[in-house]
């Protein structure tokens, strides 16, 4: 089984006097998000997408809202646990895509910073994280922030094999270039590169 997808959704109501944190990024805004934890709607959706991708339950099964330990908790803790579940299952993140739905604040001006923050927390490149935003037009939900997240995972074993196959391709390509330059057959083993053995049985 090489690839897995996951989807997560969350919503929190805006509340005055609470700091606003979305995607681990503190944002200047008169209201924050109410919740048992810090209310980071985006990290909660990504956490659920990761857990769902490896069939490991959901955020509430690990961190029940009835447990006082998670009162005011930093949502990065939830995300870290989900990342551990992904690693234990033998997968790594290919990319993550998200949609935030809220009337305010405007997300696009801070989407670059948010993308970098989320990528850092996930241990991936900013180019592997999508942050998009919509207003809840016609939904009568101006006091609410909603987040949707999808993740794609690949098996670490398969990733290693792909890397090894690429290495084989590299050696062959170099061999062709060298042949073109010096003419005739050329033994790439003389270049000190070991040709990795690829066993298709490893792909099961
Ligand atoms: N909180 C938001 C909501 C929207 N945007 C940007 O505005 C565009 C138009 O949104 P509509 O929901 O009116 O279609 C949207 O595509 C985003 O670029 C935003 O930055 N922050
Ligand atoms: C994160 C938890 C932690 O108690 O509480 P909330 O901050 O209320 O967030 P929610 O998205 O409703 O998920 C439930 C809980 O697991």
TrEMBL record:
Q: In which pathway does it act?
A: Isoprenoid biosynthesis; isopentenyl diphosphate biosynthesis via DXP pathway; isopentenyl diphosphate from 1-deoxy-D-xylulose 5-phosphate: step 4/6
Q: What keywords are assigned to this protein?
A: Isoprene biosynthesis, Lyase, Metal-binding
Q: Which cofactor does it need?
A: a divalent metal cation
Q: Which SUPFAM superfamilies match?
A: IpsF-like
**Where is the site Transition state stabilizer?**
36, 135
Catalysed reaction, written as an equation: 4-CDP-2-C-methyl-D-erythritol 2-phosphate = 2-C-methyl-D-erythritol 2,4-cyclic diphosphate + CMP
Per UniProt, residues of the 2-C-methyl-D-erythritol 2,4-cyclodiphosphate synthase domain are 3-153
Q: Which residues bind a divalent metal cation?
A: 10, 12, 44
* GO aspect biological process, one term: isopentenyl diphosphate biosynthetic process, methylerythritol 4-phosphate pathway
Stored Gene3D superfamilies: 2-C-methyl-D-erythritol 2,4-cyclodiphosphate synthase
Free-text comment on the cofactor: Binds 1 divalent metal cation per subunit.
Which InterPro entries does the annotation name? MECDP_synthase (IPR003526), MECDP_synthase_CS (IPR020555), MECDP_synthase_sf (IPR036571)
| E.C. number(s) listed in UniProt | 4.6.1.12
Q: Which PROSITE patterns match?
A: ISPF
A GO molecular-function annotation:
2-C-methyl-D-erythritol 2,4-cyclodiphosphate synthase activity
What general EC class does the enzyme of this chain belong to?
lyase
Indicate which residues the UniProt annotation says bind 4-CDP-2-C-methyl-D-erythritol 2-phosphate. 10-12, 36-37, 58-60
Under the heading HAMAP family, the entry gives: IspF
State the similarity comment. Answer: Belongs to the IspF family.
Q: What does this protein do?
A: Involved in the biosynthesis of isopentenyl diphosphate (IPP) and dimethylallyl diphosphate (DMAPP), two major building blocks of isoprenoid compounds. Catalyzes the conversion of 4-diphosphocytidyl-2-C-methyl-D-erythritol 2-phosphate (CDP-ME2P) to 2-C-methyl-D-erythritol 2,4-cyclodiphosphate (ME-CPP) with a corresponding release of cytidine 5-monophosphate (CMP).
- Share what the entry says about its subunit structure, partners included: Homotrimer.
Q: Report what the protein is called.
A: 2-C-methyl-D-erythritol 2,4-cyclodiphosphate synthase
Q: Which organism is it from?
A: Edaphobacter acidisoli
| Organism phylogeny | Bacteria, Pseudomonadati, Acidobacteriota, Terriglobia, Terriglobales
Give the gene symbol: ispF
